[in-house]
Amino acid sequence: MAFALDLLQGKVKIDDCTPLLVPKYKKQYDTLKELLGGEEGKKKELRIDVDEDLCDGCGICVTVCPVNARYCPPTLSGKAPDYPPESHQLFQVKGGKCELLNLKHCRRLEAEGRERECRVCETYCPRKAVTIEYQ
Amino acid sequence: MKRVPCSGCSLLCDDIIVRSDGLFIDEVIGACLKGKERFDQLTSNNRILSPLIKKNGVIEKCSWEEALEKAIEIIKNSSKPLLYGFSNTTCEAQLKGIELAKAIDGFIDSNASICQGKVLEVAKTTGITLTTVAELINKADLIVLWGANAAESIPRLLNKILFSRGKFRMTGREIRTLIIIDPVKTASFNVMGVRDLALQIQPNKDLELIRVLKEECCVAGSITSEGVAGLDKDDLKRLLLHLSETENGVIITGQGLLRPQSGANIIEELLELIQMVNTKQEKGRISLIMMGGHFNMAGFDQVALSLYGKNGGLQFKNHQLSDNDENIDSKIYNEDFDCSIIVGTDPISHLPRSLSQKLAKKPIIVVDNKNSATTYIADIVLPSAITGIEVAGTAYRLDQIPIELKTILKAPNNIPSDEEILVKIIDKINQS
């Protein structure tokens, strides 16, 4: 998973994964090449966008985010985190809309070597207001 | 900065952080869009800040004395006053509303009688298993949304009961199964995971589904029915398995389940199904939560039940409660009223046109804090302070738990609360 994340961020190339160079995985190798196209190896930044027009401030992203759960105990019981926000807190709901506070602590980027392809905020948003992408 | 309860909807979230300088609210943290709108009403252009009176067909500002005098005159000239609303105010004001109805021999009903009050009415004969939001946060493992679009009606409900981790569970969303039974694919379907069950049934077939579930309840292992309401045998089997094996399940009913179908009372059938499942259950139970809209819809039911053992449609004659089976619909439909006192609601917008036209024919006195279709056609409008922000008091959450609302700011122009306005009217009626 760490390799996949690095590949998406452009930190490594497909050829860096030696098992993929074995002839029996040629199909997978070609598929990956096709998916990444000319973007392979280009450094990309993670972006989490919250569409303010769609968001209704339900706070599911705040509760479901594993980083928020770890650093903001009220979110464990579905409550709004304390204010001012904790330095690791990723999301908060302010003025009826979700706000992204601090992307650098996202589990995709920083998890003490256990970075994950985490998409819970995007997956469970009932209004489809949260999108995760690399640009 | 403090945590206060929000009066935006019937969930009454008590974790909203408000930053205020004592004059204005600077920031609202944790509230959803509905809650934020409630706080925005303080400074909204739509707010009513002085009494209004209709003169020569035009509504204009007037003094409190003039407005109250005219209101008393309308009430005194009426022999069959109708009091309606009371779901957006405190229980204390609801108590005074019933007191006023008793003093003027009127008919009083709340928004709950055309919403979740119907469930309590049936529950008086069948019994009901209720639960609380806190219990769901800590223990729930099955959540059934039946005719309820929680994601859009009460935005933070799913956040609290589906995604929270709770005290007695290691994980949150992962061990909770969500079942949605709805003919429409609502936004609530978007939070479904792989283990969840999305049952898009045919419209108006809920009753058939409940009846089949009741029949098959005893034989979940060998389902005889080939399918019902657009669901196949596998869906039915999975649904029954979840219902019969949950440890702490809840069925959340919305407006979609309240209409009578095929002439039968669907609520009665649902409550019987829940009882049946709970009787057979050995390790757990299923409870019911009624998803009301207005923030104190459950309050009027509680107040009226505790006073008269009846949760709505109270008709007073000779200052005594008289027997009747009427509700707000039949009263307006039969035009069995000659003036109406509307507190904190907008029936002209909410009721069907056939009823709102009849309501509009008779004099209307409105107690509310914002302009609405009803205030535009009212004879008298008495502005009130915003409950939960400018007025403290008690309100009942959707799980029938009382929550104490707090005062955050003072009302502008010394605007009285709903309760104070009703007390003034009662005093003037008693004096004359």
Features:
heterodimer; A: 135 residues; alpha+beta; Alpha-Beta Plaits; 4 strands; 25% helix; elongated; B: 432 residues; alpha/beta; Rossmann fold; Dimethylsulfoxide Reductase, domain 2; 2 domains; nine-stranded mixed sheet; five-stranded parallel sheet; 35% helix; globular
Fold and architecture overview:
The complex is a heterodimer of chains A (135) and B (432). Helix content of chain A is 25%, strand content 13%. Chain A contains five helices and four strands, in the order ααβααββαβ. The longest helix of chain A is centred in the N-terminal third of the chain and has 11 residues. The relative contact order of chain A is 0.19. The mean pLDDT of chain A is 84. With 432 residues, chain B is an alpha/beta fold. In chain B, helix 3 packs across helix 11, helix 3 packs parallel to helix 16 and helix 4 crosses helix 10.
In terms of topology, how is this protein built?
The complex is a heterodimer of chains A (135) and B (432).
Chain A: H1 2-8, H2 26-36, E1 46-50, H3 60-64, H4 66-71, E2 91-94, E3 97-100, H5 120-124, E4 130-134
Antiparallel strand pairs in A: 1-4, 2-3
Chain B: E1 2-4, E2 16-20, E3 25-29, H1 33-40, E4 52-55, E5 58-61, H2 64-76, E6 81-85, H3 91-103, E7 107-110, H4 117-126, H5 133-139, E8 142-146, H6 150-153, H7 156-161, E9 177-181, E10 197-199, H8 206-216, E11 227-228, E12 231-232, H9 233-245, E13 248-253, H10 266-280, E14 285-290, H11 297-308, E15 314-317, E16 320-322, H12 328-333, E17 339-343, H13 347-350, H14 353-361, E18 364-368, H15 373-377, E19 380-383, E20 393-396, E21 402-405, H16 418-431
Parallel strand pairs in B: 6-7, 6-17, 8-9, 8-13, 9-10, 13-14, 17-18, 18-19
Antiparallel strand pairs in B: 1-2, 2-3, 4-5, 4-19, 7-15, 11-12, 15-16, 20-21
Helix pairs in contact in B: 2-16, 3-11, 3-16, 4-10, 8-10
